[in-house]
């Protein structure tokens, strides 16, 4: 069977296996072999071999079963062992959690103990610091500085820290009792501040970065820190502009200084921004203006000389000849003129605006752009809703005629230079470019920004005692529009009147003015809503139900109610404000709208009460006073509305027998009968059968 086992070697092939078994059997080979072929032996061998294979199969099957049983047994043992390990792991995890909770508990106790120690130590340190400052304060009080810290130049840093704290304390002391000591501390404060700035300046000249950083850190808490930065900016520019190219020198200077600023100052970005602002507002602006003015002046003189030279015989076309000579001289300057003009006008306008906002201590608010802002604008135009929080401008309009005059003057000079220095073919295009810059800085950056701030400052219609400043914005905006329009006609139109650019300029101007008018209309409408809201508040707080149903009908001595008096005073004030802020037909338009809303408010207000006979007379007196107030509007429609309202109030007091006659009067005959009925229903005696019968 061992031999047979060899026949099962891989790869196994049944045909080859039979062939090899037959070949190994004596007499089972081919006829050409050593022995003759004997089929019986071969059959016997096959039978025996089959029997052996059965036995082999049984043994293998028993071995397989034995191995399977062993595998099942070992699997059970392994599973049991895994369960034990899991239980052990769970116990270990529980122990770990307990240990972690214990560690957290101990850590909490330690932190709590640390907080307690800090709570004890901090007041102690403050007390020690306060005692130390009191000691130094007594020296100033006595007038004799005995401490070494104030007399030793090497301890200037420590002295600066002390005097800075004493200076803060001194500011809180009453002046009458501590005037002398406050003066001494302030004197020492300024003296140390001056010494520190001098030390910083000397260290900068010596190139001692470490010392500069130390002094700057001390000065950071002093008021003179800004002066220290100014000194640094001034000194770092000394000797920096030695070449003829101011732009290249500026780039090299900023590259050289940038690393040093980062090493010296705690906020290098602010220092670098201030340095660059200083360079632009002084060096670059002066350079650009000098170039423009020089080129303009020299060209003007050259053209004047050419005019004098025309009296000589220079050929048939002497004007063309002289023009070519002038262009040959100034061509290198004129080619880049417009770029320089735009750059100069851009920077100059930005400086004018920034100085104005700085003088107001105002940081410009970023105005939204893009689709969201456009959506807000559409909603505001259709609903007049105050989108966004209302801000308090404290009455500041953020419009300045001085700024406007300066911007227009700079633009006027630019137009003059443009006319002289531009090629005739390029003149309209260049003039249009200057006009766009004027629109950007005057109309967008100044006027439109002020309108946005003004709209944001308008309070809601239910605000109490609201201050309305938007009409002041309207007044100043109208004045600025007139100045803008005058320059457009006087200085721009002559340069573009015979070119296609004229249409573009007119269209741009129309778009700008229409955008401004939309915002002005929105602001005026919301302001009128606030006025009506304020009147409504006065009526709600001052008008009592007993005003029109007095307890003693025979003892009413007033001409009109307190609510009426206060409303009329408020209305007259607002009418005067509108007249002061508007001009032309705008006055009548706004006053008409205000008058109509005023009438609607009073009409609705009167329908909230019930009237006795004497109360009805008092209501007529109130409406008569409202009518006198309406005369100030000088708008026929408004006066007519209050005349009709006065006639309606007569229904409150007329005798029942005369109701039909009054209702058919001239002023009431065209009114809706339901409106007349509504007023009659306000009478306290309306439910009487006699009154109802007469009005039916």
From TrEMBL:
<dbReference type="Pfam" id="PF20667">
    <property type="entry name" value="Sec10_N"/>
</dbReference>
<dbReference type="GO" id="GO:0006887">
    <property type="term" value="P:exocytosis"/>
</dbReference>
<feature type="domain" description="Exocyst complex component Sec10 N-terminal">
    <location>
        <begin position="39"/>
        <end position="148"/>
    </location>
</feature>
<dbReference type="GO" id="GO:0006893">
    <property type="term" value="P:Golgi to plasma membrane transport"/>
</dbReference>
<protein>
    <recommendedName>
        <fullName>Exocyst complex component 5</fullName>
    </recommendedName>
</protein>
<keyword id="KW-0268">Exocytosis</keyword>
<feature type="coiled-coil region">
    <location>
        <begin position="43"/>
        <end position="77"/>
    </location>
</feature>
<dbReference type="Pfam" id="PF07393">
    <property type="entry name" value="Sec10_HB"/>
</dbReference>
<feature type="domain" description="Exocyst complex component Sec10-like alpha-helical bundle">
    <location>
        <begin position="158"/>
        <end position="695"/>
    </location>
</feature>
<dbReference type="InterPro" id="IPR048627">
    <property type="entry name" value="Sec10_HB"/>
</dbReference>
<keyword id="KW-0175">Coiled coil</keyword>
<dbReference type="GO" id="GO:0000145">
    <property type="term" value="C:exocyst"/>
</dbReference>
<dbReference type="InterPro" id="IPR048625">
    <property type="entry name" value="Sec10_N"/>
</dbReference>
<dbReference type="InterPro" id="IPR009976">
    <property type="entry name" value="Sec10-like"/>
</dbReference>
<keyword id="KW-0813">Transport</keyword>
<comment type="similarity">
    <text>Belongs to the SEC10 family.</text>
</comment>
